[in-house]
Amino acid sequence: MCTCCPSGEINMRYKNTYFFVTTTILFIAATVAALCMGRYVMSPGELFQAIFSPGSLKMGSSGATVIWDIRFPRVIVAAVIGAGLAVSGACLQAMFSNPLVSEHILGVSSGAGFGAALGIFLFSQTILIQGLAIIFGLLSMGVAYYLSKKDGQVKILKLVLAGTVTSSVFAALTSLIQYIANPEQQLPSILFWLMGSLAGATMKDVLTTIPIIMICIALVWKLRWQLNIISLKEEEAISLGINLKRIRIIVILTTTIITALAVATSGIISFVGLIVPHFARMIVGANNKILIPASISLGALFMVVVDTMARTLTAAEIPLSVLTALIGAPIFGYLLNKTGGVWSD
To answer: Whole-prediction pTM value?
Structure first.
């Protein structure tokens, strides 16, 4: 009998393997459902025909057009943005050693939201709206980072407070834009953007924005070992040879870029960075070696499911933030009540 591995560790490995296999199967099923469902309903068989043999369908190539030009880009964007927001929340929670932290903590979402609102108010071109969202998202992070520095050092508590300040300022500026916007044309667009939607996702987003988010996710993936260490006390982390400043800068930059690009593409989507990592932590434990990939897979699955619901439950599309809050809050409350907020080891 092998005694080199404790039985608890072996059971945890089986549990984690089962989790990732189950999540993968559910993601494939959710993707197929998302591609089939909508105003133009397809069966799975028709879906494969539309993809591999569009001419064989009775309606010609219209099915392939719906799949490749509308639904496929939307599913890809939803999956990557969901994975990015979830892993951003997981990284920030590890860095701040606080399960209630999310990607909104540095004011990036508010800054990017203001940039998008300003773009809608001043321009009509999507590229300019997205560009301003990214610029102001990065600006918000830069201001928070600058305010948190003292004697060349960044204090985590001051960074949180500075993020709260910048978030409040940009939220107020966004409200000002809404107040002076044209109530018939600009205001509805601003409100719909701020509540989140993937209705405008295109193949251009898949080819331009999504690769940048995936690069940031890959950087965070590479740091998953160090995230366990930086969650310790600062003195302990330094004694283990970890460059805290470098790791923190990388985490802040990657999560900022992910959030800014997500807001620029789909508007502000709340709750994903909070509920998904916490849910993953309750299943696989707090070890970031497993938690980071778990958050990525759950975030992608969650957003694909929510986006499919947003465009199919009613005739008019439901804003994503409405659904993420309505779904996420009860789940979070149930898990919190069931576990008492205790993280698995």
So the answer is: 0.88
